[in-house]
Design brief:
CATH superfamily of the largest domain: NAD(P)-binding Rossmann-like Domain
Structural class: alpha/beta
Bound molecules: nicotinamide-adenine-dinucleotide
Largest sheet: 7 strands, parallel
CATH topology of the largest domain: Rossmann fold
Helix content: 40-55%
Strand content: 5-15%
Number of domains: 2
Number of helices: 12
CATH architecture of the largest domain: 3-Layer(aba) Sandwich
Distance between the termini: 55 Å
CATH class of the largest domain: Alpha Beta
Shape: globular
């Protein structure tokens, strides 16, 4: 463990780290794997997509030769165990686990088949919990470990059509907090990243469903900042949480939504836009005379 910030190499934040990233073949997982490798980590990726996985493995090895792919369906516990066994065998000990794989099946509650809940529980809850349970002991000897769970802003905000998905992601949000406490004695930290609805495959799905124009207008309603977040926005947060830069951050989360959780409700927003001029005047520091005229001594 680096105890002194002067010892940190900001160009190689994960030098010598051995990490496992689930769903590392594409999307946020791939972005995170490549960024971690650039920062000196050996990266194991676990993914069910063999073709994309082999492509990512080749790209990783050019940067970090010890990196490798395990092909597995992480919605099945026996496969999760196989991944844990293989990665521990190859790496010996681990410094970081990124639980990134997720299954998103949207729908209104009364219309969704209950089987959708089972599928999402397998991939979003049982898989990450089992993998964490198997990987944690391989972190103990390093006295330095980080768990990063890629979840969803729906853990904090309600939205129609995502209740089952939100329930499964919320389970790991709560899980992370208790793990953060339970294994802090080994200097193992557990934190979450909550990407917003327009990032990665979730955003692509939204655009596909509602069209680019309507999607853009919706995104503008959801968040104060303009535009879409990128997979690299999420990977950068994962780098921070996996590295010593976040050594005093534990049981917490980073929300990557362009400020969606700070968003005012619609009525306020309309008023704010209509009275923007007044607002600017209101926000300008008033003169002493104006303050006195207002009764301030
Ligand atoms: N607003 C939101 O809720 C939101 C937004 C963006 C991302 N996310 C979350 O971030 C994570 C990554 O998102 P993404 O857009 O990069 O995902 P993605 O759909 O692009 O998939 C990433 C990878 O996971 C692999 N994968 C999927 N299911 C698997 C399984 N059962 N076993 C093994 N591999 C599997 C895929 O093959 C793929 O390579 C997910 O957990 C997702 O839910 C949430």
């Amino acid at each position: 463990m680096v105890l002194n910030y002067e010892e940190i190499n900001y160009e190689r934040l994960l030098e010598g780290y051995r990490v496992l990233i689930t769903g590392g073949a594409s999307g946020i997982g791939k972005e995170t794997a490549l960024l971690f490798a650039k920062h000196g980590a050996s990266v194991a990726i676990a993914d069910r997509d063999q073709a994309a996985g082999l492509q990512t493995e080749a790209e990783l090895r050019e940067i970090s030769p010890e990196s490798f792919l395990v092909v597995a369906d992480l919605g099945r516990l026996e496969e999760v165990d196989r991944v844990a066994d293989l990665v521990i065998e190859r790496f010996g000990s681990l410094h970081s686990l990124v639980n990134n794989v997720g299954l998103f099946e949207p729908g209104f509650l009364i219309e969704q088949p209950i089987e959708a809940l089972g599928r999402m529980l397998d991939v979003n809850v049982s898989g990450p919990i089992r993998l964490t349970q198997r990987i944690l002991p391989a972190m103990f000897e390093n006295r330095n470990g980080t768990l990063v769970h890629i979840l969803s802003d729906y853990c904090l905000r309600g939205a129609p059509g995502v209740s089952l998905f939100a329930a499964t992601k919320g389970a790991i949000y709560s899980f992370s907090r208790s793990i953060a406490y339970e294994y802090s004695r080994y200097n193992i930290r557990s934190n979450c990243i909550l990407p917003g609805m327009n990032i990665g495959s979730h955003g692509d799905l939204y655009i596909e469903r509602y069209g680019a124009e309507e999607a853009e207008a919706d995104f503008a309603q959801f968040q104060p900042l303009a535009g879409r977040g990128s997979t690299l926005d999420v990977a950068n947060a994962a780098l921070f949480l996996a590295s010593e830069l976040s050594r005093f951050v534990n049981g917490d989360q980073i929300d990557i939504t362009g400020g969606a959780c700070a968003k005012a409700h619609k009525q306020y927003q309309r008023r704010e836009e209509a009275n923007w001029r007044n607002h600017v005047t209101f926000l300008t520091v008033p003169s002493t005379e104006a303050l006195r005229a207002g009764g301030l001594k």
